[in-house]
Amino acid sequence: MQFLIILSDMIFKQLFDDKSSTYTYILASDKGREALIIDPVIEHTNKYLNVLDELDLKLVKVIDTHIHADHVTGLNELSKKTNCTKIMGEKSKSEVVDLHVKEDDKIKIDNIELKVIYTPGHTDCSYSYLMNDRVFTGDTLLINGTGRTDFQNGSSKDQYDSLFNKLLKLPENTIVLPAHDYNGKTSSTIGSELKNNPRLQVDSVDQYIEIMNNLNLANPKMMDIAVPANVKGLTSDQL
Questions:
Q1: What is the pTM of this model?
Q2: Which of 6, 52, 170, 235 has the fewest Cβ atoms within 10 angstroms?
């Protein structure tokens, strides 16, 4: 599943990995310009390169919103093939990042600008990226859900703060673009999540912590492979 939108001043492409239910985003100002990719999956590296080729785009930056536990990232693989800059938040334990960003930093390509928002909770290295009318929320805010907080130094208290004191304070018409969805939804809005997301219908941080502490989820199937591979930045010939 994927869709492509070419606006007057931007190319926006969302691609989906069926195995891990991961969304990957390709952004560019226009055909023939610089491009940026958010949360790539290593198995789809050639697909991303084909899209770039079809649109005559030059990949200059690639971002992971956090250290993923359910798939191996394509961040380092893409960099090896395109010489693009690898970007993650300053709290990331990745050993291959070229540029560490912090709260309120700006990531720019051509006339596109992403503002960095530190949103820990799912992991201690979770970051979101605000671009005008939309926000890439990683696993912090999902559509009708939120990212689990029970491993990789996760914290329900920190996630509550990231949600209620940062993301949910954005304008209600801000488009929410998560790193995952398990029900076929491609986007939401801050207003819709405030109204409809069951995990956000709480009156206190303690209520939120209680919800998250009682999810009783199984570990991601790829966790034991993905986390160390993503810290090391392994490429396909090293897996």
A1: 0.96
A2: 6
